[in-house]
Amino acid sequence: MDFEEAADALYAASAADFIATRNELAKQLKSDGDQLGSTRLKAMRKPTVAAWVTNLVARELPDELDDLLALGDEFREATADLDGDRLRDLTPKRHKLLDQVAKAATKLSEQQGQKVSADVGQKLRETLDAALVDPAAGDAVREGRLSSALRHVGFGVVDESGEPTNVTQLTDERRQRARQRRKAETAAEEEESAATRSKREKAEREQEEREAAEKTKAKKAFEDAVSAAQAAEATVEDLDNQLDDAREALADAQELVRRLGAELDDARRAARDAQKESREARKRYNRL
Fold first, then answer.
1. Rounded CA gap, 15 and 100, in Å?
2. Which ranges are annotated Basic and acidic residues under compositional bias (predicted)?
């Protein structure tokens, strides 16, 4: 099992078993020689109930989730075109699809023993809506490893309820002008000189080199942090062993104290009996 498989298995576990599953999978990765993967897995956060239900959607309802994300693509295209009519047509579909996916997710969740409260249901819808609106959020939801619910604000051309706002119906003339502007912008990009392309490519190469250097630096910092964590774990384990030894020695000492105390009590009783016998013997001797 590699890290990716372990992470998928972790977020597929029930919320109640998350910590135990994480510890077991991290232990397995470590035993397989993947200390880095083990440390990364231990750092993964337990999902909230809403996040757990959303992850369930990614695993059990992939087709419905794909439909939701595809509808988001249509919304972005209509927004870019300033197409108010199309946005108004898509909005009811948005609500209907969100309702369907949220309802199916709630049913699946309850079948697995996880109740969905009104608050969790609202957060689930907000997360699914964020996935529809934002491609990055959609990718995060599709991955199925959310630890927290998502919420998107500022879609731009729709209000908080999803209805179009500040969008007016386009006339043929305005639509034609918008098409001409897009055509002119495309032509300008295509006419860009070879020198400009070369400059851009050089900048991209330099950016890639900087990113590679930063990645190497970040990897080194991460490896150092892992080494430090391992050293700390070793110190904890050593101190724990020392504490066990000390506790065992203390228990032995306490047993010795108890035994010596008992022997001392016996000796004191024997001494008192001997002294008493001595006094009695003296009395008998004096009477002779």
1. 24
2. 201-223, 263-280
pTM: 0.52
Q: Check if the beta carbon of residue 55 is closer than 8 Å to that of residue 109.
A: no
Residue 233, SS3 per DSSP: helix
Bridge partners (DSSP) of residue 205 are none
Alpha-carbon distance values, 26 to 11, 18, 156, 235 (Å): 13, 12, 43, 19
Q: What phi and psi, each to the nearest 5 degrees, are found at residue 167?
A: -125, 125
Residue 274 lies in a domain: no
CA angle 112-114-120, nearest 5°?
A: 135
Alpha helices in the chain (DSSP H): 3-12, 18-31, 35-42, 49-60, 62-80, 84-111, 118-133, 135-143, 172-190, 194-287
Is residue 115 a part of any domain in this protein?
yes
Q: Tell me the pLDDT tens digit for each residue of 211-243.
A: 988 888 888 888 888 888 788 878 877 887 898
CA-wise closest residue to 90 among 103, 105, 77:
77
Read off the tokens for 91: 């909005």
Its domain, for residue 51, covers 47-168
* 173 domain residue, yes or no: no
Query: Number of structural domains, the chain?
Result: 1
Token representation of residue 267:
């000796």
